[in-house]
Amino acid sequence: MLRQTTSTRRLLQLALGRRTHSTISQPKISPAVLNSTRALDRYRPGERYNGFVCTRTEYIADFNMTAFLFRHEGTGLEYLHIDRNDSNNVFSVNFRTTPFDSTGLPHILEHSVLCGSERFPVRDPFFKMLNRSLATFMNAMTGPDYTLYPFSSTNEIDYRNLQSIYLDAVFRPNLKYLDFLQEGWRLEHS
């Protein structure tokens, strides 16, 4: 458990740009590890790729994966790419959604953006995909100061379809008043 906790913390710190130090001894290098560390040669810090600059790379031995952190030059958007020999493809759009009060606005918006979008104007495309997709995981969640829209699939065509739906939902949501009335209410018990 210590290995997983330490590696998860290191991965999050990589995404946040903080320096990390591991107290765990590293295992001997196996052929599988060598293949994963060779991924480090794919992207180099300081080099540009389609409008993104690679800002950091790190091999994370505990998970046998390589993490690459990119920053978009025009918008400042951060992109964390994880290279691992795994058939499950994972994608997530994450936003910092620091609340200004206790109304629950980030959570209301999390639900509202999944109620149809520009390219997918049907009512609740997210829930329709739960029964039609080959996804191994689909969800959306709001934390204290972030909102996540993750999914995963082992099927590449399904992965691309879900990616298209998720990206359209979060960047071009319909945000209709009726959806807000459905999602933006709560009961207060005294």
From TrEMBL:
Keywords: Hydrolase, Protease. GO terms for molecular function: metal ion binding; metalloendopeptidase activity. The keyword Protease applies. GO terms for cellular component: mitochondrial matrix. GO terms for biological process: protein processing. It comes from the Eukaryota. This is Presequence protease, mitochondrial. It comes from Culex pipiens (House mosquito).
